[in-house]
Design goal:
Blueprint lengths: L16 E7 L5 E7 L2 E7 L6 E7 L9 H12 L3 E5 L11 H16 L4 H27 L4 E10 H10 L3 E7 L6 H6 L7 E6 L7 H10 L5 E6 L9 H14 L1
Parallel strand pairs: 4-5, 4-6, 6-7, 7-8, 8-9
Antiparallel strand pairs: 1-2, 2-3, 3-5
Helix pairs in contact: 2-3, 3-4
Length: 255
């Protein structure tokens, strides 16, 4: 197993260990890897290296194998990017504490019942961001050490995590995020320090995220180049063309 620091995060200089690979019918190469305790997938095109990299994150502890994420990753790889996703601490099949599982169950119950969720959300998502961010940053270090990846780096996906990573690491040059009204207080404050080009996608009728909070968050971002795309529909109804527009956005800043 690769060396770790005292908190379990792989040390700088650790390389990913590839465990399987598959050439998909669109020409994209999908490779599973591990980095210490972190499982990940790297999708790369047949394009010549070195490649720009997009870190693609799922929401709120979901799996890197979530079908919508995999579809987005394959499309972006076919456009000429290396795309990586991981199951960070507390995500996917990674172990969770009893308290984390209870908070997750309480959050689902409260949202279904239409009850206030801010307190539960802070107790669940705030610590999840704190644990997940170091795993993503260690993965970024490891992937940029591969000869086929040269950067620059973009981020796509979960807004709260994207805020933390964009503030923490200047190698991230652009961010495309899915607007969520429920972003922890710490990340709402950090949004003012995000200055990279930003594309924020908002589903106007998202049943799980208050629209006004998402609009207020967009206003709070410190980026001078920021774009909001709003589409009708619920949480999972983002139109497919937004994936293509996202790749064009990254093309302006990563290629």
């Amino acid at each position: 197993m690769p060396p770790h620091d005292t908190e379990g995060t792989p040390l700088p200089g650790t390389l990913p260990r590839f465990t399987s690979e598959e050439r998909l019918d669109d020409g994209v190469l999908a490779r599973e890897f591990t980095l210490g305790d972190i499982p990940g997938t790297l999708w790369t095109p047949e394009s010549a290296a070195p490649l720009p990299l997009i870190l693609m994150a799922h929401n709120n502890g979901m799996s890197k194998n979530e079908p919508r994420l995999v579809a987005r990753a394959r499309l972006s790889a076919a456009y000429g990017y290396a795309v990586a996703s991981i199951d960070a601490a507390g995500c996917g099949d990674r172990p969770r504490s009893a308290a984390e599982e209870q908070a997750r169950a309480d959050l689902r119950r409260a949202m279904r019942a239409g009850e206030p969720v801010d307190g539960i959300f802070e107790s669940f998502i705030g610590p999840l961001i704190e644990k997940a961010a170091p795993d993503w940053l260690a993965t970024l270090d490891a992937l940029l050490a591969l000869p086929e990846i040269g950067g620059p780096v973009g981020y796509s996906g979960w807004t709260a995590l994207g805020i933390r990573l964009a503030v923490a690491d200047p190698r991230i040059r652009a961010a495309g995020c899915f607007a969520g009204g429920y972003v922890p207080r710490a990340q709402r404050e950090e949004a003012r320090r995000v200055t990279v080009p930003l594309l924020l996608l908002l589903q106007w009728d998202d049943e799980g995220n208050p629209r006004q909070r998402a609009l207020d968050l967009f206003d709070a971002f410190g980026s001078t180049e920021k774009t909001l795309h709003a589409n009708m529909g619920g949480h999972t109804g983002t139109p497919w063309f937004e994936r293509e527009d996202g790749d064009r956005f990254f093309g302006r800043h990563l290629k």
